[in-house]
Amino acid sequence: MIKILCTGDWHIGNVFHGIDRTAEHRHFFEWLEGMLIERQPDALLVAGDVFDNSNPSAEAQSLYYGFLDRATHAVQGLQVVVTSGNHDSGNRLEAPRHLLLRHGVEVRGSLRRLRSNSTDSSEATAEYNDLLVPLHDKEGRPAAVVATLPYLRLEQTAGGNYSDGVRKVMKELCTIGRERYKGLPLVMMAHLYASGAEIAEGSSERIVGGQEQVALDSWEGHPDYFTCGHIHKRQPIWGTDWARYTGSILPMSFAERGYRHGVDLVSIGQDGKPEVEFIEYHVQHPLVSLPSDGAADESTLLQLIAALPSRSEAKPSEHCVYLELKLKSDNVQAEVVQKLHDTVERKDAIICRMEKVMPDIEIRSMNGEEVFNTVDAIMKRDPMDALEECFEIKNGKGSLGERRRQLLEQVVRACASETAQQDDADPPPPSSPEDHTI
User: Fold this and answer.
1) Which of the residues 3, 11, 236, 239 could staple to 41 if both were Cys, CB 3.0 to 4.6 A apart?
2) CB atoms < 10 A from the CB of 82, how many?
């Protein structure tokens, strides 16, 4: 029997509406360290998006490496396996690999390919052996093998269709793992967007259209357990009982305020049958939207704010709520906004964002099928939907077709990647919750 604690989507260094979340991550790591000591797992798996951007600050890196140091000292013989996510730089994450290995920490940041004599990149052979990490139990006996799959970008799949390329890598990696470690349970960890996964509208996951979905109808010889990162809502994958998203450890947007957070403790015997226990983590700062659905006028919002807990001190407590206000008005006066701020100042809460909803203004999409009454709603629209709509209107006929869609998806992905790199290069200055203003 081997016990494995599965987690991912830490997003260390995240700034939430201008609020530095270092204290929140420290709160989580203290909790996680306590769980490791209490449950004494044999291994800890971290499935990608360790950091919130590819160039994390010194403070974010210090928090990460400090936790790894404490965790591996607190639990004797603990093995830690970390893979990269789409927010991470795989090379940066893997740079201290040899040093971390001395502490029982295995890091896999990228899929390497061995080039053949052919100039065709699709004929390059994936270096799968390096992605297989054996695990042992407390007595040092071989107990399982982890097939690690860092986040794959289109060019790393060596194929034109992303879903087919990732699926091929997964199946080949699993097959080689079974052959090389016969008789041992096989656990796979990855960071990908599985088809059918539920994502809240307005969630912060970087999903552009549907081009990065990985479909899986059936998989004979699948891993005994599959733990995955990327989608922030914990849920089963592909409708199976052997694959699961652990979910993010913090909500990354107000659209994710209803998500449950925590880690999965997976126990696997020699028969390969996993038993999964969800260990829930209660975030330091719960997210609250007022109203919970739709928008409200000034008087209703003031009543809702009045029901919040009052501050016991001049400043919000270390467990205050992060607040989103949705104000319905055609003409929002500065006096109204100030009154709402002043009212919240007496509550144990911090206003993170205020959305001004204009109910009498309807901006419709070109075909009239979608209605927008906020700028946020327009900005959150899937760019592929807009491009397909333009194509239909201009040409007066059906959908883009597979070839045009693939080409446009590549353009959209490139734009999203360039924007993300720019965001990572110029992160907003951190601020403490006490000093935060809209």
Assistant:
1) 3
2) 27
Give domain limits for the chain: 2-281, 287-360, 363-425
Beta bridge partners of 188: 147, 226
One digit per residue, pLDDT tens: the chain, 438 residues? Answer: 899 999 999 999 999 999 999 999 999 999 999 999 999 999 999 999 999 999 999 999 999 999 999 999 999 999 999 999 999 999 999 999 999 999 999 999 999 876 555 454 444 577 899 999 999 998 999 999 999 999 998 777 766 688 888 999 999 999 999 999 999 999 999 999 998 888 877 666 655 445 578 888 788 889 999 999 999 999 999 989 999 999 999 999 999 999 999 999 999 987 889 999 999 999 999 999 999 988 999 999 999 999 999 999 889 999 999 999 999 877 778 899 999 999 999 999 999 999 888 765 566 665 666 666 555 566 566 777 777 777 776 676 666 666 676 677 767 766 765 554 454 444 444 433 333 332
393: Cβ contacts below 8 Å, ≥ 6 apart: 366, 367
Of the candidates 20, 10, 78, the one whose C-alpha atom is nearest the C-alpha of residue 50 is 10
Indicate if the alpha-carbon torsion angle 298, 304, 305, 307 is positive or negative.
Answer: positive
What are the C-alpha distances in Å from 191 to residues 32, 113, 212, 241?
21, 19, 11, 18
Phi, psi of 157 (to 5 degrees): -85, -10
Q: Residue 299 phi/psi, 5° resolution? A: -65, -40
Name the residue type at position 422.
Q
Task: At 277, list the tokens.
Answer: 């226990």
Model-level pTM? 0.82
Which residue, among 224, 227, 222, 193, has the nearest Cα to 210 in the 3D structure?
Answer: 193
CATH class of 2-281: alpha beta
DSSP state of 254: G
Q: Residue 231: CB partners within 8 Å, gap ≥ 6?
A: 193, 194, 197, 198, 199, 205, 245, 247
